[in-house]
Write the structure tokens for this entry.
Amino acid sequence: MELHEMTAWELAGYLHNGEVSAEEAVQACYDRIEGVEDRVRAFLTLTPEAALEHAREIDELRASGEHLPATAGIPIAQKDLLCTDSIATTCASKILENFVPPYNATVIQRCHDAGMIMIGKTNMDEFAMGSSTENSAFQITANPWDLQCVPGGSSGGSAAAVAADEATTALGSDTGGSIRQPASLCGLVGIKPTYGRVSRYGLIAYASSLDQIGPLCKDVRDAALLMSVISGHDPLDATSAEVAVPDYTGTLGRDLHGLKGGIAHELLYGEGIDPAVRDTIEQAVKQLGSLGVEFEEVAMPHAEYSLPCYYIIAPAECSSNLARYDGVRYGHRTAQPTADIYDLFAKSRAEGFGPEVRLRIIKGTYVLSAGYYDAYYLKALKVRTLIKSDFDKAFADHDFLICPTSPTVAFKIGEKANDPLAMKLADICTIPVNLAGIPALSVPCGFADGLPVGMQLMGAPFSEDLLLQVAYAYEQSTDWHSRRPAL
Amino acid sequence: MPEVSLDEVRHVAKLARLALSDEELERVRRELNRIMDYFAELQQLDTEGIGDTSHAIPMTDVYRQDEIGASLPAAKIVQNAPDSVENFFRVPAFMEEE
């Protein structure tokens, strides 16, 4: 097997016993990028000099006998909304086209300190708003499984980079499904951790009560490895949880007998779920059943209200978070003559933001404005309580819930771009999870029409270890994870 | 449910500090009417006595010791400014001189 094709765990083995150097592993990624990136377009920025220098440092440390963490020398791609010190961070937006952060996001620092080598910054939907990565101001990323199809979004660049073996691992962010849906569409494992599990310091914010950072990886053990690197309390993020981090990799391999799984009825049998996807999930449920899980159907009576609830709350929070882009301290400032400071703001912002972002800011401003705040925003917050309570009730009697990650397999580039409603429906299975703040994991469970299908496992807050255990047992009893796109 | 008027959209665009063209104002007005549809859906639910969830995971006020730590150097921060003078951000004048 080629170096760039390996999982992080496999590569770590070779790095640890000195058979392969970090420099070789990193160079293998760049060679691969040279071979396929013109067709995949996963990256906005590549950082070969810094990467190779870091790799050499790791190799020297190892040669000197220093004990290094398991992740030392493992290549990683980082979504371009994570602040990287002295390296461009654009959120795939013209308004931040020239923005160079003066600091590292906490997760970036943790990956670096764990010896992981950043290959580059990946493409995304602008400010994480979208489900296909087509809203990027700069380029369209292709799905390595079918270059005519989208990789999903908004972490499409990260997903495509790993699926194409351009990077061994990647981080993305998830506000309404933006890690899990691209993972599903690209045949990867993706996790949205419990809200507060991973620090958001240095994550350029979209919706502060919904955003979380998480891994996109080739298999479950790699995802567990990355969760160990990035999880844990951070004093720089007041919303990060003071909850101990379990040994995610050490606790894999648990027997599933005795576990109770809930089939989220409305999410599996809802309108809009492609029949082929539904069948694939049902097969996966049978497979899990044969591994010892007892399943029953669980009602999620408020699930259908997740979409309207999310599309009031998320734009509202986005309108607040994006108010900082005013052309004064960083980012794009209009070159047009301006009548006054408000004109400077209004023109800079209109020029810098793409159409979907402008729309969501307007929607958010509207629902928060005087006269509408109570009717729209507060109502949505109450509905959010009801959605969360569906999950709380379900987890009282079940260890985890299951449903599809995405209602369809990857769709064609351009197919949904002009149908915002169809695009939003891509997230019907993932959105309830962000509203409730619970963790969820997408793991490959088959193919439909030759394209990957992912199943979503959802758990009670801080139960990522259990979700990883269930996913691992399932994965090891199948061979979906060893399939590779023919690029 | 009353439709959103163009005047309302202009007002919201002003609040959001976004200079939108007439075409976009109209496009956005149509999209804002969708919020009405979302709201109508949510209205179906009885939320009498239900509390709001602005944060899904229970969190209380987070404090830290009032100790001085390192700050980012001003010179580094100003590097991203579209226009700056020393460690100041420069913008067009917006206050009248006395």
